[in-house]
Amino acid sequence: MWHPYGAFPPSTTPLEVVGARGVRLELADGRRLIDGMSSWWAAVHGYRHPHLDAAAHAQIDRMSHVMFGGLTHEPAVRLAARLAAMAPGAGTTSALDKVFLCDSGSVAVEVAAKMAIQYQRSVGRPGRTRLATWRGGYHGDTMTPMSVCDPDGGMHAMWTGVLPAQVFASAPPTDYREDYARELTALVRAHADELAAVIVEPVVQGAGGMRFHDPAYLRDLREVCDETGVLLIFDEIATAFGRTGTLFAADHAGVAPDVMCVGKALTGGYLTLAATLATTAIADAISAGEAGGLAHGPTFMGNPLACAVAGASLDLVDEGEWRTRVPQIEAQLRDGLAPARDLPWVREVRVLGAIGVVHLDRPVDMAAVTDAVVAEGVWLRPFRDLVYTMPPLVCSDDEVAAICRAALAGARAAGPVGG
Ligand SMILES: *Cc1c(COP(=O)(O)O)cnc(C)c1O
Known about the structure:
By secondary structure, the chain is of the alpha/beta class. It has two domains: 17-30 and 321-418, Aspartate Aminotransferase, domain 1; 57-319, Type I PLP-dependent aspartate aminotransferase-like (Major domain) (Aspartate Aminotransferase, domain 2, 3-Layer(aba) Sandwich), CATH 3.40.640. Helices cover 35% and strands 16% of the residues. The chain is built from twelve helices and 16 strands. The protein has helices at 38-41, 50-60, 74-86, 105-122, 143-147, 178-191, 216-228, 280-288, 304-319, 322-337, 366-375, 397-413; strands spanning 17-21, 24-27, 32-35, 98-102, 130-134, 167-169, 195-200, 204-205, 211-212, 231-235, 259-262, 274-278, 346-352, 355-360, 378-379, 386-389. A seven-stranded mixed sheet has the order 4-12-11-10-7-5-6, sandwiched between helices. Strands 1-2-3-15 form a four-stranded mixed sheet. Strand 5 (130-134), helix 5 and strand 6 (167-169) form a beta-alpha-beta unit. The longest helix is centred in the first third of the chain and has 18 residues, at 105-122. The two termini are 28 Å apart. The protein binds pyridoxal-5'-phosphate. Pyridoxal-5'-phosphate (PLP) binds at residues 104-106, 109, 138-140, 201, 206-207, 235, 237-238, 263-264. Pyridoxal-5'-phosphate (PLP) is lined by residues 104-106, 109, 138-140, 201, 206-207, 235, 237-238, 263-264.
């Protein structure tokens, strides 16, 4: 069996999970590990949450799936309405009130790109087919998302002639710099006639390198996109629903995009589901265009079971315990990870919301670091030169403390002695 980015034999032997409850994974050998990854940003409320379990059971007793072509159902209708009502820009003329339900984050990004290209064709700009972004991003593993991933991290050299050639700015600096803002906006202006959209991860670049940037860059992008008629797409697949301390990362900038992708935590990590939201102006233009509609419609679109669980997850998001919990987790990660700075091979320690990153000056030895982390009773999955955590937003103080201890042990094991 292939595992993600797998090879044979795998770089580490996968651990067998037989159950999960709260923030803990239960392994076949009886060990229990605190999940410091939230199953890749998704399990924000923890596992087997009674409210989500109940929603899944109730829906499975009605219907698990039904096609979405020509049919509709309450779980999807309710979910779409709630997403539109909570999205940036809600209640204004630029509200994101047209919702496309997708099966995964990568598909949500594909759909966002197709929306942008179809929109530009419909408004009489068929030459606008490319995307612009900044380096250091990650948007998924299918071809279009890959084309806007970081060119080095995404190994674009290997895919020359296969991936569409997109327009790249350098990676956004952590702090606000006028010269970078000028470079970024000048690039969009220079390529405006061939650009359908700018796509970025707001505030946090996730799997492309776990870097943070000043939200003010998003306002600059909003302005230059308005000026040039290029659409602005925010990929909030990793950041939506409280992870960074605000409901959406875009809220740090007070900016609404034209198109927004969400996924990962949408179902609290229970089932695969994502969504692409767009403004009414975009939906109207696409509907009036030559195709007469959006050219996308997956078999499992709007899966009722996934929509029902997503609705239950949004109940918990609305309850808003994360609003007090995330700042506490942030403070704890700051204190708990700080000692890693004393290790000579640690380049930087950075924390934002419920995201903590120890950035090393070398690639991690996966086996050594994983062993050190697991020995502390925690699950982390390092990559490249990063030992990092994005814990469930319901973690207790003790659990966050354990995650910090494990991340430090992992960082130590990555050095000369351990690695
Ligand atoms: C994970 C991720 C994706 C891809 O989502 P999948 O569900 O893995 O296809 C896209 N964009 C961002 C920012 C992500 O973190």
